[in-house]
Write a structure and sequence with these properties.
The strands form 4 sheets. Strands 7-6-8-3-9-10-4-11 form an 8-stranded mixed sheet, with helices on both faces. With about 675 residues, it is of the alpha/beta class. The chain starts with 11 loop residues before the first helix and ends in a 13-residue tail after the last helix. α1 packs parallel to α5, α2 packs across α9 and α13 packs across α18. The protein contains 21 helices and 18 strands.
């Protein structure tokens, strides 16, 4: 490698200066990225004291140091050979590339955290696995990509010149040549320092873990203390080896007994108990059925309960849903099982929970299993079906998964002719989808057979591509949420249009409509460490006679896995199933309901909600118990109730353990799999 003739090979001490200053620059880069993330999501600060975020930044130094320690290793190795110390151009290139990647990920993380309230994790790889064209289109149209790339290029150029300046000030024309043992001593010191910083802690046992950043009561501050690059690397290590599959915490017999006590009611009778955990025959009470023949499930994209007027929000985002809520039964403490649409799909329709390592179940080999969900249970009743969706059914393997479960008719983006609006990323608008939904349901009704349908909206999703002439007033007073809430208001309008037309159709009086959000989304206020607003969604049932039998509202806790058994309970007739939920309208007296939830991502954090309490169990930390309140004045209070914690924790762990075993053993269907027989 040809060296600059004006400067000689640096001495060992000069190289040590280059080593130290370069590490300092990288540390400053990460601190500035953390500050940018803090400012970009400043609305999450709320009334949290400044000292809490000072603590978060101090915690962040340990995680940044761990990442920088790995990045600086090639510079440390040069102490073993004096000529290598002179190859500064290669060293500067390496450092600049490392900083460039860190800056790129930091810029990416600004909106990633704003959307998911999580540092970079396995969600990045989930999106990469999907259709690249759609993902790139979503990013291009949804975010200021050109502005970000320009800022990235400028900052990278500045970093290059900073390393060049450090190179100049840490060597001279006549550098002193030290004996090799001096270089060796410096190498040993640097290696020990790198090892110590990379370990991140002086304690015995495990090195620095993500849980070490969770030292405050603020979820935002705790997340801020992490390093996004490091989180992404950890997620990458776990993508292919399924290391996040739930590890059993109790004997199978004990876990099975707990799960059965959680899910079985007096109307359930176990069958094939030696082969399946909760396969049972369900006999609904005749007096709790409804005079219905058809079922229409409407899965609303990002329909967060936090912004639904009928659940207490005062901002008039969902006037049509609020009006419909006066006609049906509204569940006020309902939750999604996960935080992504595909999790809402298989939980709602296949009646199976979101589990660690299986967040993308519909795309996994286990997604080929037969589940005792709505398609399977209603197909054997000889009911026709239709699935109407704005987008492409290849996304999330929807057509493959649901056709395997028993659905036969799919209407997607390529089946719409002259839509009112179509965006290049996802497909047609919600008003197009609901208009086509009206048409398809009328067609099914004319065939004379009972039917079931799934209508899925999409406009309320980044990049929120909406018609130019909006039929609703844009939201302008909610800061960074304006665009999202405008899309939600538009989706609500399209839902109202659908029902206006549906009410004119003869089938309406014989139909149960189930309206539910696929998941919520983050808001400036985070409710508990689990960020419950990302899970809280409305569940509204509209059917003839439903209010007369069940009232207008229900405070029973439920999640999407409860939807199928609740539907079957209204249809009536004996049914064999293995749903991981229950009929919410046929529970024993005093039963407040429960739900198991898990956010998207590669860690094993799970939670159980029971009544107004939620137990959150992270994978590397002690569980926390909160009392929460939803509605117009949401709140959460950390509880010190060891007895209740000890009661809920085994229920949560047993549920996850047995559901995972059921999935892996392919025994989650209503009937025995071939491998069982």
């Amino acid at each position: 490698m040809k060296q600059n003739k004006s400067l000689g090979t640096p001495s060992a001490l000069q190289q040590l200066g280059f080593f130290a200053l370069s590490a300092l620059v990288l540390m400053i880069v990460y601190s500035l990225l953390r500050y940018a993330l803090f400012q970009y999501n400043y609305e999450l600060v709320g009334d949290t004291p400044t000292a809490t975020f000072v603590e978060a930044f101090i915690n962040g130094l340990r995680f940044d140091g761990k990442m920088v320690a790995f990045m600086i290793i090639p510079i440390g190795l040069t102490f073993l050979c004096r000529p290598l110390m002179g190859w500064r151009l290669i060293q500067r290139l390496w450092l600049t590339i490392a900083a460039c990647i860190a800056i790129f990920l930091g810029v990416l993380e600004l909106d990633f955290y704003h959307e998911f309230h999580q540092r970079l994790n396995s969600l990045v790889f989930q999106y990469i696995r999907e259709d690249p064209k759609t993902v790139l289109s979503m990013i291009w149209y949804g975010y200021p990509v050109v502005k970000y790339m320009l800022a990235w290029a400028i900052i990278t150029a500045v970093i290059w010149f900073i390393f060049k300046l450090i190179d100049r000030i840490t060597r001279s024309e006549n550098s002193k040549k030290y004996p090799f043992y001096v270089q060796l001593i410096i190498f040993i010191i640097c290696a020990a320092l790198i090892a110590l910083v990379a370990r991140g802690t002086l304690r015995q046992g495990s090195p620095l873990r993500w849980g070490d950043a969770y030292t405050t009561d603020s979820p935002f501050a705790n997340q801020l203390g992490l390093n996004g690059t490091l989180s992404l690397i950890d997620a990458a290590r776990n993508v292919s080896n399924r290391s996040t599959v739930w590890k059993a915490t109790m004997p199978p017999e004990e876990a099975q007994q707990i799960v059965r006590s959680m899910l079985l009611t007096p109307n359930d009778h176990l069958v094939e108990a030696d082969k399946a955990v909760i396969r049972r025959d369900y006999q609904p009470n005749a007096e709790k059925t409804l005079p219905i023949k058809n079922v229409v499930v409407i899965l609303m994209e990002s329909f967060a309960g936090r912004y639904v007027g009928a659940l207490g929000d005062p901002n008039h985002i969902t006037p049509n849903f609020d009006k419909l809520a006066q006609e049906g039964l509204l569940f006020t403490q309902f939750f999604s099982n996960g935080t992504h649409t595909h999790q809402g799909m298989f939980a709602t329709m296949a009646c199976f929970p979101n589990l660690p390592a299986f967040e993308t179940l519909m795309q996994e080999p286990e997604g080929n299993n037969k589940f005792s969900g709505l398609p399977q249970l209603l197909s054997i009743r000889d009911m026709n079906d239709v699935y109407v969706y704005n987008g492409d059914f290849a996304w999330d393997n929807q057509s493959g998964f649901f056709s395997n479960q028993g659905m036969t008719t799919f209407i997607g983006r390529n089946d719409f002719v002259n839509p009112v609006f179509s965006d290049p990323t996802w497909g047609v608008s919600d008003q197009d989808m609901f208009t086509r939904g009206n048409e398809e349901l009328d067609k099914l009704a004319k065939q004379g057979k009972p039917f079931y349908a799934l209508l899925q909206s999409l406009s309320n999703h980044t990049p929120y591509a909406l018609p130019k002439d909006l039929p609703v007033q844009p939201v302008t007073d909610q800061g960074s949420q304006n665009e999202h809430l405008t899309a939600m208001r538009y989706s609500d309008w399209a839902l109202g249009q659908f029902f206006e037309k549906a009410k004119q159709s003869p089938y309406y009086k014989d139909t149960l409509f189930v309206i539910v959000g696929d998941h919520g989304f983050g808001s400036p206020m985070q409710l508990t460490d689990m960020d419950m607003f990302r899970f809280n969604v409305p569940l509204l049932l509209i059917a003839p006679g439903i209010q007369e039998k069940f009232g207008k509202t229900d405070t029973t806790v439920g999640t999407q896995v409860d939807i199928v058994p609740t539907i079957m309970g209204r249809l009536g007739g004996d049914v064999r199933h293995q749903c991981w939920g229950r009929d919410l309208l046929n529970l024993p007296a005093g039963d407040k309901g429960f739900g198991i939830i898990k956010p998207s991502g590669s860690d094993q954090t799970v939670a159980i909600i029971k009544g107004n309490e939620i137990l959150i169990r992270p994978s590397e930390m002690q569980p926390k118990l909160y009392h929460y309140q939803l509605g117009a004045n949401p709140s959460a209070t950390l509880l010190d109730n060891q007895q209740q914690l000890n009661s809920l924790k085994p229920e949560l762990e047993a549920y996850i353990q047995m559901a995972t075993q059921s999935l892996l053993d392919n025994t989650a269907g209503a009937e025995a799999a071939q491998s069982d027989k």
